[in-house]
UniProtKB/TrEMBL annotation:
The keyword Transmembrane helix applies. One of its GO terms (cellular component) is plasma membrane. Residues 102-290 form the ABC transmembrane type-1 domain. This is Binding-protein-dependent transport system inner membrane protein. Keywords: Cell membrane, Membrane, Transmembrane, Transmembrane helix, Transport.
Length: 306
């Protein structure tokens, strides 16, 4: 609509433009400018900041502080029979390593642990596969997990000694029990947490059976699976040391648990702490050299975790 004009007044041109036309715009030309006129956008990190950003160095500092506290408290207590110093423990550790006794005990424990851990992971995989393919499998896994997961594995050792005798079979039995339910529970929870959208994408691509599980469910649920593997390893490691304390008493031999028990009877407390220190070192090595590397090449690389 045109605007009305007063009588006798000159007509006013409308400043409105048609919808299809655009006003010409001047060409934008950017001249290069010297970077010295701008503020610093990025600056190099200091030496302290570069060192602080290294995770392994921060953890090493924590361990060093704990060692200093240990040494100071032991010297203040001044009772080697009750609490040896950190330096005495390290000396006992190196003596046991040089004699070959501690490496042999450690390998005996790790050998049994690996057999029980692998068997537990395989059994957990079978139970989880049955749970995701059938309702009866889900009901069975949930029922067995509710019943057996709260049951301490070490409580089954007396029965294991009766059923399997004084051998590695008893230790493997309790290890399988300690590993299976934690791994199965976390794996099944991870599968249930996979989004329906991702599941439908796999179905639309024609994935079925093992290919569907390997390419859709396992990668999506891998953070939960990895958590279950970590928890299963920790449970198995603790159960093994506790079982060897009893098993070593029964059979007169064993791994690190028997090494700790034997030196306790001899009142060699420094060697007892050396055995406990070895258990801690093996746990740190497995966590940082196996699980941490696996996590970095899978979960973090896939963008599932920062």
């Amino acid at each position: 609509m045109s605007e009305a004009t007063a009588p006798g007044a000159a007509p006013v041109r409308s400043t409105r433009r048609d919808a299809g036309t655009r006003a010409p715009r001047a060409e934008i030309i950017r001249e290069p400018s010297d970077a010295a006129h701008f503020s610093v956008v990025e600056k190099p990190l200091s030496a302290f900041e570069r060192l602080y950003n290294q995770g392994w160095l921060r953890k090493a500092m924590i361990l060093a502080v704990l060692a200093i506290i240990w040494e100071a408290y032991a010297r203040w207590l001044n009772n080697p029979l009750l609490f040896p110093t950190f330096t005495a423990t390290v000396e006992a550790l190196f003596r046991s390593i040089a004699s070959g006794e501690l490496p042999g005990k450690a390998w005996a424990s790790i050998h049994v642990l690996l057999m029980g851990y692998v068997c537990g992971v395989v059994l957990a995989s079978l139970l989880t596969a049955a749970a995701i393919t059938s309702r009866i499998g889900t009901d069975f896994l949930e029922t067995m997990t509710s019943m057996l997961n709260p049951l301490p594995a070490i409580a089954l050792l007396p029965l294991a000694l009766i059923w399997f005798g004084l051998g590695n079979g008893s230790l493997i039995f309790v290890l399988v029990h300690s590993v299976t339910w934690s791994v199965a529970l976390n794996t099944h929870s991870g599968f249930l947490s996979v989004s329906n959208t991702l599941k439908m994408v796999g179905r639309n691509y024609g994935l079925r059976g093992g290919a569907y599980v390997a390419k859709i469910l396992v990668p999506a649920a891998f953070p939960s699976i990895l958590t279950g593997l970590k928890i299963g390893w920790a449970f198995a490691w603790r159960t093994l040391i506790a079982a060897e304390l009893v098993f070593g008493v029964s059979s007169g031999s064993g791994g690190l648990g028997w090494f700790i028990y034997e030196n306790k009877n001899l009142l060699d407390i420094a060697n007892v702490f050396a055995g406990l220190f070895t258990v801690i070192l093996i746990g740190l090595a497995v966590e940082n050299l196996i699980f941490r590397v696996l996590e970095r090449h899978t979960v973090q690389r896939w963008g599932m975790q920062s």
